Amino acid sequence: MNVYKILLFIVGVNILLALLCIFFPKDGIPFGKRRLFFPTLEEIMDREKHITAKEKLEIMESGLRMQFVMDSTAHAEQMAYNDSLLFYTNFFNHHPARFYFPDNDSSFFDSLFYSLDNCKKNNELIHILHYGDSQIEADRITGFIRQKLQEQFGGNGPGLIPAIQPIPSASVGQTSSGNMERYTIAGNLLNEAEHNRYGILGQTTEIYEYGTITIAARNLKSTFENVKDFSKVRVFVSRNSQNFSASLNAGNNNPITRTLQDENSKLSVLTWELKKNIHKIELQFSGDAEISAIALDGNAGVAVDNIPLRGSSGTFFTSIDVNTFLPVLKELNVRLIIMEFGGNRIPSIQSSKNIDEYTNSIAKQINYLYDIYPSAKILFIGPSDMSTMENGHLQTYPYLKETVQGIKETALKNGAAFWDMFEVMGGENSMIEWVNNKPAWAAPDYIHFSEKGADKIAEMFCESLMIYYNYLQFTNNYKQK
Q: Sorting pLDDT into bands at 50, 70 and 90, what band is 121?
């Protein structure tokens, strides 16, 4: 039975049930010694309101995976084409996990997908930047996305990391010593420098005379497999002193040294391409310099970079010196920039005017990124549901839903795609259900995801993204016939 017939069947059943609800006697009908009752429409709708978050996600996930069932069971080529096309059309227009695109252009990600496919064909390495607030700290959400994309398109390693990382990560452990100072542009860990040379991570580390950094991939239960080793190390250096050097020890007690002989204010990239994958390095620096990032990758494939700024609302990009930002974007061959922000602004939004002020600032960030680097697509992930206490009861923050809508409209108007995490979770008051789920999908602060919840939302994101990738393959296959 094709999908069209299934839909007609479902519609027919729903009509029949609705008629039974309307015309069935309210006092029931005799059935032996008992009376048989049929629920009213109001009772059915009330029950639907009490569907759990887990049940909602199960329904959404079944919609995400319907295509594969249809494709595998369709026997006639034309029927397979019609069924698949109907699935994609319904998903693009109605599914809560769908992406929203400027001008409803479902081919928005096609250039990204072609780049991902070419990673294997051309032995290339591309980067996807995932900026966010504390919701993605410790490589949460990003780690799952990275693993899935690297499984599909190749690649390994954690990608970009700062020289000094004070927040523990599930993927990488770091220690540092020496004369080094970390500066950050935004968030609760703000430590402003006397300049704006923060670079691609929104933070930079200044080294004076000497410093040592040790980096090792973790092997925790929550550590994803592809992040555990790497073979390409790059250090992004600027404003270095004469004869600044960096020595890399990959565990064989045979350091490989890179030296910058001339004093230079511009970006230099110190690169080590190793013959085999490693999981731990030590970097020893001698001289003065600013280090904006370290990249740990494979030689080809896709890298997905976790860039959290705790407490940030995502309005810092326009304050970063373009000369420390743009060259790294080019060097990394960045093809997608994900901005996941909004949660930190929600508690302070008390009016529509506040929403306009925030979304106007978001528009400036999107336009700035497109202006300096039009080669990458931009995707904004809206904030999750968040709960606050009102009159003794937990409920969604006032203006959260309106803020999400405002961000979506702003993203689309300025050429960025949008993914509605609030809607995917289940909408208003869904955070309460995520906290109460067994196992808990969110923390008892009713703001942050738990580890399992972060994986769940990332899984929904990846499955939705791959539907657009599969649609591209689907259309290309039929064009060739």
A: confident
What's the rounded mean pLDDT across residues 331-358?
97
Residue with tokens 């227009």: 93
Of 85, 83, 102, 91, residue with least CA distance to 61: 91
User: What CA dihedral angle connects 113, 380, 94 and 54, to 10 degrees?
Assistant: 100
CB 442 within 8 A of CB 426: no
Helices (H), 231-321: none
Asked whether residue 16 is domain-assigned, the answer is yes
Rg (C-alpha) for the chain, rounded Å, is 26
Residue ranges of alpha helices (H) inside 251-393 are 322-332, 352-372
The total number of structural domains in the chain stands at 1
Which tokens go with 395? Answer: 């409920």
* Predicted TM-score of the model (pTM): 0.87
With respect to residue 314, please indicate whether it lies within any of the assigned structural domains: no
For the beta carbon of residue 192, count every other beta carbon within 10 angstroms. 11
Please give the residue range of the domain that contains residue 63. 3-84
Per-residue pLDDT of 153-180, as tens digits, reads 999 999 999 999 988 899 999 999 999 9
CB 460 within 8 A of CB 423: no
